[in-house]
């Protein structure tokens, strides 16, 4: 009796004589058995229902294979963030190809307690893993991935541009070669000469069949694979009707050729595959260019102080290079992986990890991009240039996302689910009609129906419309977190402003009233230069003397003031209550008090300037402008009332909680609120509002909870941005209409037999091109007013 070879339940390879068993299942080695047991213990054996024997043999996965990842130099290159209890790494995993891959890779934390979370970027075939380095090493993570069949490709050098999918280009080339040669061999048929020689007719038919096999089996394999996967997952996607149409044409053509009843439709079939792949290539390149443009061009304007040889000057983060010397102040974002040059400080990595737990950093320690400095200013030297895409991804951390779901995404999801079922049903009804009316044309007609109906244009409408608008906004100094913000911005019916740093900017007059020696003025400047608050910057700019002393024990209380030690003296600068525990009388300008060694020495009288054209902005907003909130005293109420007339609400002495509660009260009244502030003492209100906008002037200060960053010089155009957001939603609706009418008209031609499958395959990518072209032109046309404003 011949013994039948047994396949391993996990990897599918022959078990051989050293097989092991568990739960009445056989495995080729102990490694495969161990992976199965891990999955089984964590209720993840659904993994095996997606694909038979999906894993890889553990006989070929050795712990030593990835041991080099634990070497310090390699580890530093791979980790995006590293601390004692939280690290992040991103791997390129070529084996990611379907929903089962995503499902398993995003459940790694159930396989090992050292994994904190994992997230898959399907289009880039990347998995980002956050883990606890005290419990799990980098080599163990790579080994775990390999054991599941997802061996990572280790890249020590970062890519500047998305990788090209060469397999798609190869499939397109083979399909084009087959299509061209099948058409060449079909010329006798086209010219009516194929009946003269039966031998040549049969030869050409079989040659066409041979050429059609690689076009369908290789070039068209993704459509069949994705359709099969969708059936396994009990779902249906757009590849299902395409795969059915291709299979129908191939089988019918095969029958005609082998039964000698006709030449079949192999020219149409190979042309279908060729033009479908052209459409897929076009869409992939378009999405790549969108993602690249979003990550590397539509960056938010994070600026930092860089040493220029003789003085400090602000530069945009993408200009930083390794070995550049930078200075970071309290509450500023560290823009690149850098090493601390002096002293020690605390860094808040909540922007990276989501947990607000300050980490102590000493001289020589590495500080990671995205950390927020807490305390006195420090100097750092840049170790590694940070890509803008990394900073953009930090800003889009799910921890800082609004709870509201995008409305257009709901529409697309519902439409996509219903669309394919509707097309399949229509194809079935069409087939029944043509079976009785004209059976010879039935196969071509139902293939045309299956091919021409395409929800791709519907799916492309939203990302292209909002993506183009994101770029337009970015060109004009308005940087949004993502496309969802545009949708929420279009619904805003209440606008609330912060005062200091938002409505006011710069100073028309700064004068110290009191007694300070020249060296004491230099100490004050040293302390205020450590703060990024607008009033601190104005005072710093007004003092001409300099000090070489350093600031120690620096602290800042939001909305109250700053303090610290300079040259052995204790300084406090801020409100009268903060400095001297006394209430300030009403004054005509803002006063910033100064004490040295607990003795009040006077105050700075600061008359701030109102940004240009703010009065016109308030007038253009009309009833949408509901309030101005300020943490300052009522001294400027009369001046603010000239800009914000009744019935606009003016509120002073507002702490951060008061501002947040005010926004919340408006929302309880059914209002959709946009809050504009400087991001310092109004971060709670920015997060609470539907749209939180941080107004900035060449600074690294903003809250990750904000939805957008607006350059201060563009604040007067804010109402234009609101109108453009509404225009974007109108353009999106029109694009939806174009997609809808395309499908209605194309299907009406297809079901009546007036559309060939080849033309249907050409029309399908053209529909996507038309939507992309329309959205691009429409957005550019709608934004022409902003271009006019920029010129003037």
What is the C-alpha radius of gyration, as a whole number of Å?
A: 33 Å
Q: Proportion of β residues?
A: 15-25%
Low-confidence stretches: 56-62, 158-162, 290-301
Average pLDDT rating: 77
Give the arrangement of secondary structure elements.
Layout: E1 20-22, E2 25-27, H1 30-41, H2 47-50, H3 72-78, E3 79-82, E4 87-92, H4 99-105, E5 115-121, E6 126-131, H5 138-147, H6 166-185, H7 187-190, H8 198-219, H9 221-232, H10 239-258, H11 266-296, E7 303-307, E8 312-316, E9 325-328, E10 337-340, E11 344-348, H12 350-353, E12 359-362, E13 366-367, E14 372-374, E15 378-384, H13 388-395, H14 407-437, H15 439-452, H16 456-475, E16 478-480, H17 484-490, E17 494-498, E18 504-514, H18 518-528, H19 534-542, E19 551-557, E20 561-566, E21 569-574, H20 576-580, E22 590-596, E23 599-610, H21 614-621, E24 625-629, H22 637-643, E25 649-651, H23 656-668, E26 673-677, H24 683-688, E27 691-696, E28 708-711, H25 718-751, H26 757-782, H27 784-791
Parallel strand pairs: 17-24, 17-26, 24-25, 26-27, 27-28
Antiparallel strand pairs: 1-2, 3-4, 4-6, 5-6, 7-8, 7-9, 9-15, 10-13, 10-15, 11-12, 11-14, 16-28, 18-23, 19-20, 20-21, 21-22, 22-23
Helix pairs in contact: 6-8, 6-11, 8-10, 8-11, 9-10, 10-11, 10-15, 11-13, 11-26, 14-15, 15-25, 15-26, 16-25, 16-26, 17-25, 18-19, 25-26
